[in-house]
Amino acid sequence: MLARLSPDVRQYLLVTGNYWAFTLTDGALRMLVVLHFHQLGYSPLQVAMLFLFYEIFGVITNLVGGWLGARLGLNRTMNLGLAMQVVALSMLLVPSALLTVPWVMAAQALSGIAKDLNKMSAKGSIKLLVPGERQGTLYRWVAALTGSKNALKGIGFFLGGALLSVVGFKASVAAMAVALALVWLSSLALLKRDLGKAKHKPRFRDLLSKSRAINLLSAARLFLFGARDVWFVVALPVFLAQSLGWDFWQVGGFLAAWVIGYGLVQSLAPYVTGRRGGEVPDGRAAFGWATLLAIIPAVMAALLAREYAAQAVLIIGLMVFGVLFAINSSLHSYLIVSYASEDGVSLDVGFYYMANALGRLLGTVLSGWVFQQAGLGACLAISAVFVALAAVISLALPRHAVPATGAT
Questions:
Q1: How far apart are CA 387 and CA 408, in angstroms?
Q2: What's the rounded Cα separation, in Å, for the pair 93 and 181?
Q3: Do the beta carbons of residue 334 and residue 139 sit within 8 Å?
Q4: What is the per-residue pLDDT for 277?
Q5: Rounded to an integer, what distance in angstroms lies between the CA atom of residue 26 and that of residue 23?
């Protein structure tokens, strides 16, 4: 069956499979760390600080990783990311007495580097596997990769919460390390060599030399993902466990369902935003969808302030937020791959995901600090402001209709 597929499709499936496996462990590890250390008595801000280096090194990795991908090839950066995640997981298997905050932060730093090397490599590879004139196909492939990845991340959240309840922290981490090591060995043998290596070796100063469209889209992405993580990373899981009394598996299950649904909607986004009139989306679409999204956390914050039933507000509100956020995210993911230059694509994609990581860093720190100081409602209010800023920035993105060649 696989032998009958074209080489590009086989490479796409391999890249996607690597991305899936990595994302499953990344989502499970995130939930394991949040719930395990909250169980040990860490405050919301202290739990957020465990992820500080994860996000800081994600910012650095996306910037430098794009340059490395252009010089070394995306296959090497993807395999490096898989190997580093195995090491990061193994670091958490030390005796409990050695599992100190600095040690966990160091392991998370390595995991952050690994995650963004893997993501940058996967997204950059797609640009090279689809002919430049087939923008409709490119949009669908990017949406499928991104959506399926987030669905797997949601399953990882559920897996992390369930494993913590059933087998404990150490056994869960060990199983994930072994499974990902096997994926890494397979990737070393099968992934195409020199994928994404630039014809002309980029200079280090080229890291910040971007088009206006990429700079604007990167700024919008920063605020979009800051808007999600300001309530998602620490505030929501701790609120569900602490204020609503949910068990670990319930917290993990809810967040898993949210992310899985979000991923499925991402996969379908081209059929929502890119089919009318045979066109793919542009900056005007990015502004419109961001404007709709900004309304949801604002309404949720207002309802929580008026002391409406918190559980109902969160479940219904976050379902609507998830649908709109997924469309926004998928639309952005298509635009960056479309805007990026083919020669040294990882430079542009890496810069964009550097902004994405900076937004996650901002959201992560605020998620712990604002929740500890003012509660979940304040986190949602900040989320609304951040999405509104993303919408305003999107007004300046290029407005053009590209014929959706290949959008069958």
A1: 32
A2: 15
A3: yes
A4: 47
A5: 5
Residues whose CB is less than 8 angstroms from the CB of residue 280 and which lie 6 or more positions away in sequence, other chains included: 135, 136, 139, 270, 274, 334, 338, 401, 402, 404, 407
Helical H runs in 233-344? 235-242, 248-273, 283-305, 310-339
Phi and psi at residue 279, to the nearest 5°: -115, 155
Cβ atoms of residues 398 and 216 within 8 Å: no
The pLDDT value given to residue 382: 97
The tokens for 320 are: 């609507």
User: 167: domain CATH number?
Assistant: 1.20.1250.20
Contact 101, 47 (CB under 8 A): no
Cβ neighbors of 306 (< 8 A, separation 6 or more) are none
| The overall pTM is greater than 0.85 | no
Q: Does the pLDDT value for residue 60 go beyond 70? A: yes
- Tens of pLDDT along 22-32? 888 888 888 88
Partners of 402 in the beta sheet?
Answer: 280
How many domains would you assign to the chain? 1
Q: What tokens does 32 get?
A: 């394991």
Q: Which amino acid, one-letter code, is at 326?
A: A
> Helix (H, G, I), strand (E, B), or coil: what is residue 398?
coil
Q: Parallel, antiparallel, or unpaired for β 279-280 and 402-403?
A: antiparallel
Domain membership of residue 350 as a residue range = 2-403
User: Considering the domain boundaries, does residue 139 fall inside one?
Assistant: yes
Please name the residues in contact with 112: beta carbons below 8 A apart, sequence gap of 6 or more: 53, 54, 55, 56, 57, 58, 61, 357
Domain assignment of residue 162, yes or no? yes
Asked if residue 145 lies in contact with residue 19, where contact means CB atoms within 8 angstroms, the answer is yes
In whole angstroms, give the CA distance from residue 18 to residue 13: 9
Name the band, by pLDDT with cuts 50, 70 and 90, for residue 295: very high
**408 falls within a domain:** no
| Rounded distance between C-alpha atoms, residue 116 and residue 347, angstroms | 13
Please name which of 403, 324, 330 lies closest in space to residue 135, comparing C-alpha atoms. Answer: 403
In a domain, 135, yes or no: yes
Question: How many C-beta atoms lie closer than 10 Å to residue 279's C-beta?
Answer: 18
Which secondary structure element, helix H or strand E, spans residue 195, and what is its range?
Answer: none
Residue type, position 250, single letter: Q
158's tokens: 């559920």
